[in-house]
Amino acid sequence: MSATVVTFEELPGLVGKDLGYTDYIEITQDQINTFAEATDDHQWIHTDPEKAKDGPFGAPIAHGFLTLSLIIPLWSQLFDVDGVKTKVNYGLDRVRFTNPVKVGSKVRLHSVIAEVTEVKGGVQIKTSNKIEIEGEERPAVVAEFLARFYA
């Protein structure tokens, strides 16, 4: 799999472009614990494997915001713009956590460019994204990601 790499001038013509799928990455308990430390969210469904075995999911689950944050490193596998001075993660729209991610699960990102808009000094793109769980029908996260590129 190789990323789609375009120039700044090509951005307006990309509406509807399916960027494809990333490789799968595994969600580990160490990753979950590190996120819990960073965010001070130590809820037992994330950080206590023994208690979580008897919980509603039968295992510890990743924080929803941990899974959401994976959009950035995964997205870099799919897309880049050459010849720009600045790239900015501008925000998110319509975020939903639709399926818990159990520790040991593998996730990947699927992304489609939904909109391209001119902004002062640059271009903003909106991508429709799904973080999928290997072997699961429903995605873990559905979100629209906004990025800006300045020439």
Automatic annotation (TrEMBL):
<dbReference type="Pfam" id="PF01575">
    <property type="entry name" value="MaoC_dehydratas"/>
</dbReference>
<dbReference type="InterPro" id="IPR039375">
    <property type="entry name" value="NodN-like"/>
</dbReference>
<comment type="similarity">
    <text>Belongs to the enoyl-CoA hydratase/isomerase family.</text>
</comment>
<feature type="domain" description="MaoC-like">
    <location>
        <begin position="15"/>
        <end position="129"/>
    </location>
</feature>
<protein>
    <submittedName>
        <fullName>MaoC family dehydratase</fullName>
    </submittedName>
</protein>
<dbReference type="InterPro" id="IPR002539">
    <property type="entry name" value="MaoC-like_dom"/>
</dbReference>
<dbReference type="InterPro" id="IPR029069">
    <property type="entry name" value="HotDog_dom_sf"/>
</dbReference>
